[in-house]
Amino acid sequence: MLEHRERRIHKLRISVTDHCQFRCVYCMPKTPHFSSPAHFISFDEITAIVQRLQVHGIDTVRLTGGEPLMRAQVPELVRKLKAIGIASVGLSTNGHLLTPALAAEFKAAGLDAWNISLDTLDPEVCQKMNKVKVLDKVLEAIDIAVASGIPVKTNTVVMRGFNEQELPAILDYAHIRGVEPRFLELLRIGPMVKDHARYFVSADEMRSTLAQSQGELRALPYEAGSTARYYLTSTARRFGIIASETQAFCATCTRMRLTATGKLLGCLFVSEGEMLMPHLDDEKRMAAAWERTLAQKPWERIAHSPQEMYAVGG
Question: Has residue 202 been placed in a domain?
């Protein structure tokens, strides 16, 4: 769908659960409040909502959480979405619960892309940053995902005092495995609103750190609507940087969000939206709910938000 200022909205990020077994410092408050699974919309309901939204241009879906693999039978949701004609279905995961058998189910269902969180290669940093001792499982999950033959990207949230010096090592690790690494600026959201300046590492600093080990970096043409800006190293290694703070892409953002309880949102930073289940059986009411949410989608960067990222779907 094209808005009046020519922003093509065609992507939908769907949170299937707000539950997560990690407690990442940039995402989770000290005491998270998870929704009851009884309040989650079913996979059939998710599919029906997406089918309604296809008329508005939705053709690309990313399944997120919380941690989506904490909900059973997610490959079945992938199968349902592909069956109604969604061109691309991806999955964002911390990898902890991914097994070869589950990866095979996703492959058979038609999954198009993996996004796996990889904040560090150091077990001690993992414990401090993600509050879990499972780095070995995350690294194993990356290998399982690669073996599935489905394209893999890793996402690394860069935080000063935690992992800002690991970027070259993560880049090397990813490219040895044929994985595309992406490095993310820390968002000023949820638990990071107060201490953002203390931990923030800019895209400029990330590029400088990588250039010291990789040589001259060449910027690739920016694709409108992409969250990442991509670069090539002197040895043709490709990586992305998602500079949401210093190079905001709101004016070209192409995505909407659906929470696990069925609320449509226009942005990670806003809480105003529309509960879609009451409109599911009425095409006109669904269209009106879509338009109202679209009208609330910001064109410029919101400075900060108390909204909890895990509750919306990162």
Answer: yes
